[in-house]
Amino acid sequence: MPVFDPETPLPGAPEPWAGSEMPAMHPGPPYAMTEMIAAEPAIAERLLGRLSEDPALGQLAVLLRGAAAQGRVIVATGCGTSEHAAMIAAELLTDVLEGTTVWPMQALEVARRPPRKGVLLAVSHEGGTWATNEALKAARTAGSATALITVTDRSPAAALAEHVITTQEQDQSWCHTVGYLSPVIVAAALSAELTGSPLDRVAVRALLEAAGHEPTAEAAAAQLAGSSRLLIVGSGIDYPAARELALKIEEGARLPASALQLETIRHGHLAAADEQTGLILILTDAEGWGETLLERSRAVLRSAAELGMPAAALLAADLGDNVPAALTPAGRLSVPLAGGLSRRVGAALATAIPLQLLAERLARARGTNPDTIGRDDPRQAAAAGA
Fold first, then answer.
1. The pTM is what?
2. Among residues 44, 138, 178, 365, which is most buried (max CB within 10 A)?
């Protein structure tokens, strides 16, 4: 097998377009997922360079600004990893479209009840997801403008959208990492376009490089791998990251995992938890709510300690002292900060690699190959196609 170069651009979608096939099996680590994580800092720098010259970014910003000024409904949607990226996009765009809320909705729900004469922003990595394409169709029928973030403009989804922003480099693992970070980068670039302050691609690359600390991910994974299930919690922009981490753990490590809002977990869910239940807290987005959010986070960790749950955390670099180390006995991963980026944009970008590394190391610790998301098992393949 050739040596992987993380600086070399990934291939785009096949020509003619087709959905991806199961990745080539790696006999052991590094997996394709491992390689994709390593490639992300360079991908981010290249993608931001392309976006700076892509008129579609400015056109979409004009569309969103106009819709907000007219009070039209704006919805962001997707499925799976793409839904989580869409949730991040909704958070970032709400921050910069003053007085306007961008609503995140799952694609099938959008297809059932599309925005009328509004705007639908869809995320679909390959552009072939059935529910997302149904959402785009329904939105057009309802008189809404449609936009899409995807890898190529040759996909079925691209044919359904009026505005298409392409990321051009396709994830080579089915346990998508590039497929998550790429649309998050587009969302960050779009929010920057709306504020007139373009992202510094070198600074973004440096932020992502600083986020990739493998030893801490490996140590936390070793502590959590024996759990019967995991609960992942977060608030604000950390909640989509918690959703994405839960999905990556289930896909990659085949370990049951659920994401809950920070406050929600203490309202009944802990009744089913014990010392076999692991907890992971994601806490980067404390700028707006400060001590209130910090104390609710510490309270969840104290509850976990009372139940003997192994707890770990992904913490913004400046919040480590606010959370006693004794409350995270399974370890903590530091999420770096970046000057020149808003707190929430930085958090959205910088949590991606730590959560992906933790999931990948959990897969290693449990002896699973994350690339196939279990579909090398005939039962799983049959279930996916049922």
1. 0.97
2. 178
Contacting residues for 245 by C-beta, under 8 A, at least 6 apart: 232, 257, 259, 280, 282, 355, 358, 359
Which residue matches tokens 């990226």? 85
| Euclidean distance between CA atoms 378 and 95, whole angstroms | 45
User: The tokens of 348 are what?
Assistant: 């959205």
> CB 150: neighbour CB atoms within 10 A?
32
Instruction: Count CA within 13 A, CB hemisphere, residue 252.
Output: 32
Q: Which two tokens stand for residue 248?
A: 């990556």
Taking the C-alpha atoms of residue 2 and residue 119, their distance in angstroms, rounded to an integer, is 44
Lowest mean pLDDT of 308-312, 317-321, 347-351, name the range: 317-321
Q: HSE (CB half, 13 Å, CA atoms) of 357?
A: 26
- pLDDT of residue 110 exceeding 70, the answer is yes
Cα 358 to Cα 276: distance, rounded to the nearest angstrom: 18
Place of tokens 């793409």: 82
**C-alpha to C-alpha distance for 91 and 72, rounded to whole angstroms:** 17
Tokens, residue 118: 């509004």
